[in-house]
Amino acid sequence: MMTVVSLHVADAILPRPAEPLSEQPSGLLELVALVFIPAAAIAMYLFDAWVGRTRFQRMLGPAWLLADLLFAGAAAALFRRAETRAESEETERDRWLWALAALCAWLPGAQLFARAGGDWPNLLSEMYVAAWTAAFGAWMWRLWRERGHASWEPRRAVSVILALAAWRAIGAILLLLIWGPVEFDPRSAAAFGFLVDLPSRLVFVTIFFATRLAV
Fold it and tell me: Which residues are bridge partners to 161 per DSSP?
């Protein structure tokens, strides 16, 4: 989600030239970036894995490496599928994309509501998760039924997406100023989840299936 939003915002701020990229010669800066950026990302990942600093790794426990490998495989599959679709005239989205997007939007909300009810499992947290699942399922079913009304013309500089990116940045800064880092006040993580992350995910998934974003 953050990748698509970031690319969309970047294209709105610095629009790509009308000339196809394949007809433009690659400069030295682009060639250096192709090597430096992946190398830097791999180095940062290995360092975080070595020191155990990544929060999600601590949450997953000893299965973090398997989860990362599966995530990398899913990302590679998505990239190859996007390349294939870019060269075809297909307009209907793959049905498995709906399931993947639904899972990515449902899971953070389920985690937040499960924690809001106290130590899992208990009756209150289970009721919260059940209510969230029912509401989320009804919302996704409505998106699925209305999928044929979506405009398939790619849109640039969608105001809602730009506002969404701004809200994520501003909301994170405000919560950091109010409660500080998660290490000092756990309420910061809960507030970010309910006020910033979850609403932005729901808005993004709605826009993702209601229109096409130019990235």
Answer: none
The pLDDT of residue 8 is above 70: yes
| HSE-up (13 A, CA, CB side) for residue 163 | 6
Single-letter residue type at 53: R
Q: What is the DSSP string of 119-173?
A: SSS-HHHHHHHHHHHHHHHHHHHHHHHTGGG---S-BSS-HHHHHHHHHHHHHHH
CA torsion 91→95→98→100, rounded to 10°? Answer: -120
Do the beta carbons of residue 162 and residue 9 sit within 8 Å? yes
More confident residue, 27 or 195: 195
**pLDDT tens digits for range 38-63:** 788 778 777 776 766 655 555 555 66
Q: What pLDDT sits at residue 214?
A: 66
Q: For residues 214 and 155, is the Cβ–Cβ distance under 8 A?
A: yes
Helical residues (DSSP H) of the chain, grouped into ranges: 2-13, 28-51, 55-60, 64-86, 95-116, 123-145, 159-179, 187-192, 198-210
Q: What pLDDT sits at residue 135?
A: 93
pTM: 0.61
